[in-house]
């Protein structure tokens, strides 16, 4: 009775590939990218061990594809932030709300940490790991200048690691006060926007 479903799965290589990728992303979130092995991925995906090498050239290929999936998921949060950036100086609270929501989501938090830690030892993944940061800096810089935007995103990287280590994000008030202070800090670039309202 079970032979027919398995045969159907074998005839759908793209579905099998998605199963392997889904398993790899789960393992990365649970145990980090370094935990991936062909055997672990195959067991989690409930597929024959040979399927991992049939659909991916190496374990690094699986890891990179899974990290790409996780990076794409963070773009959802970035898209939400984009709708708040124009008003971030006068009303930073909704922006901080999204940051807190991101930090409180175990999957997205661990995925972000996995991207950062893996990219520190694998240079070819750095562009992927920095994609979210670079886009957020670009969006914020239009309102508060590049130096302040960089300071906020760098601070948020630290807050992300802090949340992972402590299994809880910093509270809303702490994040809000710090981000407002960073938005109001002096900027040596005279052409940068001056977000006076942020200091209020």
From TrEMBL:
SUPFAM superfamilies to which the protein is assigned, alphabetical: Homeodomain-like, Tetracyclin repressor-like, C-terminal domain
Keyword DNA-binding: yes
Positions of the HTH tetR-type domain: 14-74
UniProt cross-references to InterPro entries, sorted A to Z: Homeodomain-like_sf, HTH-type_TetR-like_transc_reg, HTH_TetR, Tet_transcr_reg_TetR-rel_C_sf
Molecular-function annotations in GO: DNA-binding transcription factor activity; transcription cis-regulatory region binding
Alphabetical UniProt keywords: DNA-binding
Keyword DNA-binding: yes
PANTHER family registered for this protein in UniProt: HTH-TYPE TRANSCRIPTIONAL REGULATOR RUTR, TRANSCRIPTIONAL REGULATORY PROTEIN (PROBABLY DEOR-FAMILY)-RELATED
Protein's UniProt name: DNA-binding transcriptional regulator YbjK
